[in-house]
Amino acid sequence: MKVLLAGYNIDSETIEELKNSSNYNKENLTPETLSAAYARISRDPRDINILRKESREEVEKSRKSNSTIIFGLGHSSVAEHAFLNFDIIGLSRLAVEEVQKFRLASFTEKSQRYITLEDDYLIPNGFSGEDLELFNETIKVQNSAYHKLYDSLKDYLFNKYSEKVSKKKGKIIVDGWAKEDARYVVSLATLSQFGMSVNARSLENMLRRFSASKLQEVQDLGKAIFEKVNGFAPSIIKYIEKTEYDSKRVENLRLLVNSIPKSSKSSDEVKLVSYDKDIDNKVLASILYEYGFDDYDQAYSYVLSLSLVEKMKLVTNSQQFRKSYNSVCRGYEYGDFTFELLLTATNYAQFKRHRLSSQVTGDYDIDYGVKMPHTIEEAGLKDIFNQVIQKTDETYRKLKKSSPSLADYILTNAHRRKVLVKMNLRELYHFVSLRSDEHAQWDIREISDMLKNIVRDKAPVVSQFLLGKDSFLL
């Protein structure tokens, strides 16, 4: 694993100073000066640019100020003005899932959909002897199958879509289809890389949570990131060690859950858990409130007096002039749906990016089975796929007994976990627009279409324009 600090935000006037002088002060090349300057805004009447100038010229004073304000007085939001960018290279897909759960950060990841994989994978610390031998043997079987499937799927799809691949763009698209379906047999130990941008306050929270991770790989990542940051910005990140709340809480709750008897597991891909049965009326009332009807009870009563046609017209008015890339108004946030989803690792890798929704993930479980891409069966390749899954499941069962915290690394992108997700209607509009589009990856598109159909059935008025952006009607 390698962590590179790719960049960080510095004062624009510092950049100008560098342009005009070869004898510059390297000490002020730190985001700490911005945090210190902005912290003074609330109590110092001078113009902000003067505060920034003073902060740049007195870096040590700025650092002391940050420490006092952020950690002494508890004004943690000051640290949000320091923004950092990282290259994270050589992290497993399993660890990536843990890192990218955090809402207040931005990630761009290496895509297994567009890039041909090169058999690189992580050997987790803790495997030895027969376990290590079995782990490596299974990974080799998976990776060998990936290349066989990719080559065979490419031939099959190029023949099936011969007209499309006659053009350069079409060839790239169809080749991507072969890659995205072949990857279902590779493991969660497969290495990845991504760019991460995050403010210092969120980063401190991430590092503290990393220190409590059950994955040593994630713990090591946290230490590597802190080492990079602490060298040039020591005053904005301080508390990175796990607390009892971070570690013992998880342990105690898991022990409690494991002691509770459970019945057979549901294998439904999408299950509606809860929703507000009056969602149409409440969302419409919220839309009216947003645009000037400043008494909610009166707005709600007015909506109840409308006919179905009038309600539909109100929804149309609320989305008039909207293009497929525009968000619906905030009034749509006042209607929630909670779903339980059964997602493959491939699907979850995409779904987790919708971080404004509330997501609670369950563990991967081989009892949920796997999901085979349709093209693999169409091309007569299901025996290769099934042999890999059988080998993987056998290895997983053995590793789960001897190394339970590491066993998930051997699972494939086709294995599944449950996710409890709550999304308001505004987020659902965004999600469905992207994921029910014809260009979306098929696995998440299938889930999105099921969500769309459920929502349109339960909230037919306010969800009448809930559709993929390729079908956008307005």
What would your notes on this structure say?
The protein is an alpha+beta fold. It has a domain of 141 residues: Gyrase A, domain 2, CATH 3.30.1360. Helix content is 48%, strand content 13%. It has 18 helices and eight strands. The strands form two sheets. It has a four-stranded antiparallel β-sheet. A four-stranded antiparallel β-sheet has the order 5-6-8-7. The protein starts with a strand and ends in a 16-residue tail after the last helix. The model has no long low-confidence stretch (mean pLDDT 92).
Which term fits the overall shape? globular
Helix/strand order, N-terminal first:
EHHHHEHEHHEHHHEHHHEHEHHEHH
CATH third-level topology of the domain at 2-88 and 193-246: Gyrase A, domain 2
Helix content: 40-55%
Number of strands: 8
Rg over CA atoms: 26 Å
Question: How large is the share of residues in beta strands?
Answer: 5-15%
Give the structural class: alpha+beta
| Total helical segments | 18
Regions with little confidence, pLDDT below 50 for 5+ residues: none
- How far is the first residue's CA from the last residue's CA? 48 Å
Architecture (CATH level 2) name of the domain at 2-88 and 193-246: 2-Layer Sandwich
Please, what is the average pLDDT?
92
Strand order of the largest sheet: 1-2-4-3
